[in-house]
Amino acid sequence: MNEINLTIYDSQYKAKSLVDNYSNIMCSISGGSDSDILLDLIYKVDTNKKVKYVFFETGLEYKATREHLKHLEDKYKIKIYREWAKIPIPLATLRFGQPFLSKRVSENISRLQKHGFKWENESYETLKEKYPRCLSALKWWTNSYPKKSNGSESSFNINYNKYLKEFMLMHPPTFKISKNCCKYAKKDVAHNFKKRHNIELSIVGVRKSEGGVRATSYKNCITYGKKENDVIEYRPIFWFKNEDKAVYNLLNNIENSKCYTDYGLKRTGCAGCPLGRNLNEEIEVVKEHEPKLYKAIKNIFKETYEYTELYRKFVKRMKQGEIKNECIR
Predict the structure, then answer these.
(1) What is the pLDDT of residues 176-225, one digit of tens each?
(2) Where would I find the H helices in 149-202?
(3) Which of 176, 126, 172, 136 is nearest to 329 (CA)?
(4) Contacts of 43 (CB under 8 A, 6+ apart)
(5) pLDDT value at position 329?
(6) What CA dihedral angle connects 292, 31, 64 and 92, to 10 degrees?
(7) What is residue 2's predicted lDDT score, i.e. its pLDDT?
(8) Structural element, H or E, at residue 254
(9) Distance CA 275, CA 295 (A)
(10) Has residue 77 got a pLDDT over 80?
(11) Which of 202-211, 245-254, 296-305 has the lowest mean pLDDT?
C-alpha cells in the first residue's frame, strides 16, 4: 500500500472509531470539493446514521451550490440542515464593516478603527500611551511580534503582507473594516446548532495543506475542549494533500459542484468573498454565470474591492521602484 492510500485508510479508520464512540455528531457541509470528500467518508463510516449534516446559509450562496446540496441529499439519501445566518453577510457588512485582505488583517484594522487610530508611523511605546486599549493591534501595526525561527516575518505583524503598512500610511481606510460577517453568518450559527442539538463531536473539512489562518492554527486532526463537556472538533481530511483528494475522488466516484466543473472556480463558499486568493478571477466568473449575484457582491463589497485593487497596484509600483519609501510619512 503506498503513502497516498495510507493517508486515506488512516482517515477512514480514525473517522470510524470516533463516529462509533459518540452519539450527537454534526458534520459541516459547504458544497465545496473538500466537503464532498468529507461527506462521502463520514457517510460510509456512520453505519448507525447518527450524524447530522449542516449547511450554513450566509446570504451569498451560488445557485450552483444550492443545486449541489440537493444532489448530495438525493445521492446519499440524507437530510442536510440549512441553518440561516444570525445576521446575513449583506447586513453584517453594513453594520460592522467589510473584510479586507485576510481575517487577521481585518480584525486588527477593525480594532484600531474602533479606538480612533490616526494611522501614525510611531513606535509601539509611543502609540500605547495614546491608545492603551488596543495593544495587540498596535503590536501588529508596529511589527512588534518576534520573527519566526527561520527569520521570516511573523504572520501576526503587518509586514507579513508586503508593503501593507506603507500603503495604509499613504491611503488610510475611509470605510469600516471587519471580519464579523463570518462570525454572524457561520461561527455563531454553528455554536447555536451545537448547543441546540447537544453536539459532542463536530466534524469539519479543514486541510492543513490549504493554508490560511484556519488551517495553520491547528497542529493535528483533532481538538479536545478544555472542559469536560466541550465539543470535540475533528478534521478527518486534515492530512489530505491534492494528490490524496484526486485518488479519493477517483476511487469513490466523487462528483463536484458546477462551481468547479462548469464555472471553473477553485473554491466555493461565500460568493465574491474579498478574502479569496483569486478574487478578480472569481468576480469575473460570477459576472458570467450568475449576473444577479454579481450585482449583489459588487454593491456589498464595493469599498473593499476598490481598496484591494488600490493596494495591489501600490505593491506593484513599490516593487518597480515607482514609489520611494522616503515619500511615506
Answers:
(1) 999 999 999 999 999 999 999 999 999 999 998 776 555 467 889 999 97
(2) 164-170, 180-182, 188-196
(3) 172
(4) 51, 76, 78
(5) 47
(6) -10
(7) 47
(8) none
(9) 18
(10) yes
(11) 202-211
Q: SS3 of 243, please?
A: helix
Candidates 268, 270, 294; CA nearest to 283 is 294
pLDDT recorded at residue 269 = 81
Radius of gyration of the chain (CA): 22
Residue 29 has pLDDT above 80, yes or no: yes
Give the span between the Cα atoms of 245 and 238, in whole angstroms.
Answer: 11
Question: Residue 28 and residue 185: Cα distance in Å, rounded?
Answer: 14
DSSP secondary structure code for residue 98 in this structure: B
Question: How many helical (H) and strand (E) elements, i.e. helices and strands, does the chain have?
Answer: 16, 6
Q: Which residues contact 188 (CB under 8 A, 6 or more apart)?
A: 86
Q: Are 23 and 51 in contact (CB under 8 A)?
A: no
**pTM value > 0.85:** yes
Residue with cell 440537493: 70
pLDDT of the residue at 225: 79
Mean pLDDT over 105-123 rounds to 97
What amino acid occupies position 72?
L
| Cα 255 to Cα 38, 207, 265, 296, 307, distances in angstroms | 13, 19, 15, 28, 37
How many residues comprise the chain? 329
223: phi then psi, degrees, rounded to nearest 5: -130, 120
- Cell 473539512 belongs to which residue? 205
Q: How many CB atoms lie within 10 A of CB 72?
A: 22
pLDDT, residue 42, reads 98
Grouping H, G, I as helix, E, B as strand and the rest as coil, residue 78 is: coil
Say which DSSP state 227 is in.
S
Identify the CA nearest to 236 among candidates 51, 23, 86, 48.
51
CB 215 within 8 A of CB 183: no
